[in-house]
Design brief:
Elements (H helix, E strand, L loop, with lengths): L3 E10 L2 E11 L4 E6 L5 H9 L6 E6 L2 E2 L10 E4 L11 H15 L23 H13 L15 H13 L5 E5 L7 H18 L2 E6 L2 H7 L2 E6 L2 E6 L1 H6 L4 H6 L4 E10 L3 E6 L2 E6 L13 E6 L5 E4 L8 E12 L3 E8 L2 E8 L12 E6 L4 E5 L2
Parallel strand pairs: 3-8, 3-9, 6-7, 7-8
Antiparallel strand pairs: 1-2, 1-4, 4-5, 9-10, 11-12, 11-14, 12-13, 14-20, 15-19, 16-17, 16-19, 17-18
Helix pairs in contact: 2-3, 2-4, 3-4
The protein binds adenosine-5'-triphosphate and magnesium ion.
Magnesium ion binds next to α1.
């Protein structure tokens, strides 16, 4: 367990700035997620920590000490890749033992301290000692693969292969675990269960973890803290709850799944209520702070209203709320735990989630409805 610090990291590939001054600190034992769209620099940041990429400027510190001059295998890290990257010709046991053997080899094994090549770091050069057997056995047990040691990766399911990769990453007892989209090759059900496998393991071993993903749900559900990246920069950093509750920009709001992001302008600002004109809709918004720059009259903003914050009733039924809007259902979908509707309201379309719908009792396109939501449920973010 160790603190990891990325300090003003910069990395260019030709004219492209993949990292443009990334600074963040991952606390000891923390699981920190890097979330961002494709090409935002997540993998490059992780590879700089791993030593697979050398930054042009800035520093990477683990436990307070710069690791830039150290080779990847000299850094106290374990890494899990999206593609598993298992050796197909090695058994599960030898795949997991690889990390230990590579380390022994790098520290002056039979062939001296030269570049480590997977093909050479074998059972022949490093026959399993009782200690190696114990460590590999422990790592496999931690990922519930104790009985699979002699199987080949090709005989295992994707989820099992990813657990082998996880065992291989932790067998050297690294202080830091680096995971690059480890679950994106798995189907949804497996992804969700592997999430908790990784989280439990990380907490049990108290490893500091850096977890790269472009899946906002994964980041929100797993991370102690997270950073949203865009074009090589960190655009917001905080706990999942804080980022979800108060996205700093429209980009962040959009990225973490704000389906309703209405462009508007502040038209009134009384003591505790701000009024925003969003096209034909006039919304009351609870003021967050008197001095917020997004709350001055005339400011162009975007209003975030979450689908689950909006109440829905038939047009002829009463509905009391700070904001009441009449609308017409355009489309409805039964999602099991919720029904999701697209409702045309004024000159915009709002997405509305109704929890616990009765199957078969879905509203139909054309149904007239009333929507209501509280002033406190609307979040204002800067326009850009
Ligand atoms: N070795 C390389 N040579 C040239 N360009 C690269 C190299 N590695 C990354 N890039 C570029 O740097 C930018 C950041 O890439 P990176 O792989 O870090 O993004 P990412 O956030 O991990 O994206 P993804 O979600 O697609 O994995 C991209 O535009 C990518 O094309
Ligand atoms: Mg990547």
């Amino acid at each position: 367990m160790a603190e990891v610090r990325l300090q003003a990291l910069e990395k260019r590939f030709d004219r492209l700035k993949a990292l443009d001054g990334v600074t963040l600190t991952i606390g000891e034992g923390e699981l920190f997620a890097l979330l961002g769209s494709s090409g935002s620099g997540k993998t490059t940041a992780l590879r700089c920590v791993a030593g697979l990429e050398m930054p042009d400027a800035g520093d990477v510190l683990i436990g307070g000490r710069s690791v830039l001059s150290r080779q990847p295998y000299e850094r106290p890290i374990g890494m899990v890749f999206q593609s598993y990257a298992l050796f197909p010709h090695l058994t599960v046991f030898d795949n997991v033992a690889y990390g230990l053997r590579a380390r022994a080899y790098a520290q002056g094994g039979p062939l001296g301290k030269t570049r480590v090549l997977g093909a050479f770091v074998s059972r022949r050069l490093f026959p399993p000692t009782p200690e190696l057997r114990r460590k590999v056995g422990d790592a496999l047990a931690l990922v519930s693969l104790a009985g699979e040691a002699e199987r080949m990766p090709g005989q295992l399911s994707g989820g099992m292969q990813q657990r082998v990769a996880l065992a291989r990453a932790i067998v050297t007892e690294p202080a830091v675990l680096l995971l690059d989209e480890p679950l994106s090759n798995l189907d949804r059900k497996l992804r969700v269960s592997m999430r908790s496998t990784i989280r439990k393991l990380q907490q049990q071993l108290r490893i500091t973890a850096l977890y790269v993903t472009h899946d906002q749900e994964e980041a929100l559900s797993l991370a102690d803290r997270m950073a949203i990246m865009d074009h090589g920069r960190v655009v917001q950093l905080g706990t999942p709850g804080a980022i979800y509750d108060q996205p700093a920009t429209a980009f962040v709001a959009d990225f973490i799944g704000a389906e309703n992001l209405l462009p508007g302008e502040i038209v009134a600002n009384e003591s505790d209520v701000v009024t925003v004109q969003c096209g034909a809709l006039r919304l009351k918004v609870a003021a967050r702070s008197g001095s917020s720059p997004t709350e001055a009259i005339g400011t162009k903003v975007r209003a975030v209203v979450r689908p689950q914050s909006i109440g829905l009733a038939p047009r002829d039924a009463p509905l009391a709320a700070d904001n009441c809007v009449e609308g017409v259902v355009r489309f409805g979908a039964y999602l099991g735990s919720a029904a999701r509707y697209e409702v045309a309201a004024g000159d915009t379309t709002l997405i509305v989630d109704v929890p616990d719908p009765r199957p078969g009792a879905l509203l139909a396109a054309g149904d007239a409805v009333r929507l209501g939501f509280a002033a406190g449920s609307v979040i204002l973010v800067p326009e850009t």
